[in-house]
Amino acid sequence: ERSARRALDGNTALVYLLWGLAWIIGYGSLWGAQQGWLPLEPASALIVMATALAAATVSTVVIFTRSSRGIRGQSAFQGRMYGAAWALGFTVVGTLSAVISRAVDDFWLRGLLINSIAVLVVGLLYITGGAAFNDRAQSYLGIWLLVVTTAALVSGPAHFLAVFLFLGATGLLAGAGVEYLRNRRHRKGPARA
Fold first, then answer.
1. What is the pTM of this model?
2. Angle, helix 169-188 to helix 12-35, in steps of 10 degrees
């Protein structure tokens, strides 16, 4: 039963690790460009971030598509609807980002708004995904990302990148560690007499 559950869950620890690294690369590049610590223009740093996020997205889709092959019934429906929520949620985020880009001239304020909306969606989907799939760690990570988003908004255009970099990426890496340890504990199973 434990082996089947692990196979169906995919490698959540790897997914969180990939996203934590994508945030470090992406937000680190933007923050370094903003602060003048990296020899990058903001537009170039944005390309670095987009590339890191795209790589994490493709990897996540591959990992969860492989783990869900052959699943039928209610679990398949839940998985499809959860995947559709991600796809549709980020379709809305992309459309809203285009509207914000036309309405807001300041590059960093625009970035604050777009990133906060995106991480809001991620946080809410993590909370609901954790509730739907009985994964408390995922729900707690979603709550953490909403706290991080609030802190980023309060910190303003000059500091939001540091908040996402240091608090957001750290939360994702901590989630990877928790999942790794949990899977390792489940692999060992209960002690036998």
1. 0.86
2. 160
